[in-house]
Every structure is written in C-alpha cells, then in structure tokens.
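[Automated response] Your request has been received and processed.

Submitted sequence:
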Amino acid sequence: MAGRREYRAAELAEAAGITERTLRYYRERRLLPPPRRAGRVAWYDERHLARLRTIDGLLARGHTLGGIAELLTAFTEGRDAGHTAELLGLREPRPWVEERPVRLTPERLAAYFADPASADLAAALEIGYVAVDGEELVHVSRDLLEASAALAGEGIPLSAMLAAGRQLRAYADALADIFTGLLREHVLPEILAPGHRRPLAAEDVRRLTEALERLRPLAKKAVYAEVSLALDRRLDEDLTPDT
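Generated structure:
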C-alpha cells in the first residue's frame, strides 16, 4: 500500500462529497470494492474514491443505482454484450484484431487528461472506451487514447471529444459495414457468408487474418483520404463569403 493515500469512512465521504450514510448504503448495495480492514477500522483508497466519482457521474446522467450496479458488474466481470471481456483479457483476442487495449491506473488516466471529471469517466465507461478491472482501468485502444490526449492538448474538452466519439462510432460502424460487405461478397464469401456461425477452422482463420492484413491498410487509407477531402470541402464552404 506504499505511496497510496488511504481514507477512513468519514474522510472518504467528505472527499467524494457524500454523507457517511450514503457511503454505507453504497457498500450495502455492493457498489464499492471491500475496504482494507485493520482491526475494526475500514481503510479506503483512491480506487474507492474513483468509483464514488464514477457513480456520481452516472447518477448525473440519469442512471438508477440498480442500473449502475449492473453496469459496474458488467465492466468488472467482462459480461457486457460487446468487447469488454476481450478488453479485460478474459477472452483470447482473435488473431486478426489490430487494436490492443492498454491497462493503466486511475492516476495515469488522469495524467493523460489533466484529471478528467467523474462525468467524463462515466461517459467513457458507458460508451465502452474504458472498463474497470479491480484497481486498474483498461482503455480499448492505445492509439485512440493517445489521439484523444493529443486533442485535449489542443484545447478540446474531453466531454466534447466523448460526445463526438459517440457520433464517430456510429459512422465507423457504417464504414465497417461497407468494407465487410466487400469482403463478404468479393474476397471471402465462403467464410463471411450471412448466417455463418460454425467455429472457424484453422485454415479459415489464416485466410481471414492474411486478407485483413492486406486490405485493412487500404481501407484505412481510403477512409483517411475521404475524410481529408470532406474536411477541405467543409472548410471551403465555411470560409467562402456569401454572395
């Protein structure tokens, strides 16, 4: 525990801006990890404070305590319907997956973004950018984390980036549909055919992995060029004087 600040219950409640009664209630609802016990004294640390701030942020976004409990359990145990199990290392990633998660402490995440607000952490949890794994946080992608930190360094608030991220994910899913459609129709129809649910044979995995290694960079290059052209068009429209 060296180097980590610890709090008694009253100190933790004060730091989180809640009452001791609320703290006890959260403990009874199992919204917090168990404290460290030293005799009859319960000691809390920064992970408990971070969890309380996350709960506060989720409540502010309209979540109920029951929903928050389910959300935190899903992220902690990797049971969400998307990629959290793999993100937390509970499932072996497929060999064709390119983005890799990064584990970091709450303090390290704060260093990336000059101490992000609890509402921002709650939003990142909700979107699926970040998952909780015990005392650590796991970000879905090192590249995305570093790009977000660089944008924050340019003066864009993290809350604005997260709001944009929601939109960007929807567009990214649409782009992925386009490219997987091309793969399904023209490159690997026997593997990616609609309704294909049988486990992939080793040869299928090899072919799919090799195809994506060839085609993913080309897809990214095409998307980059289209976004660059679109930015130019939009700026030209915004900067062209009205006639």
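Summary generated for your ticket: The beta strands are 6-7, 36-38, 41-45, 102-104, 130-133, 136-139. The radius of gyration is 22 Å.
If you did not submit this request, please reply to this message.
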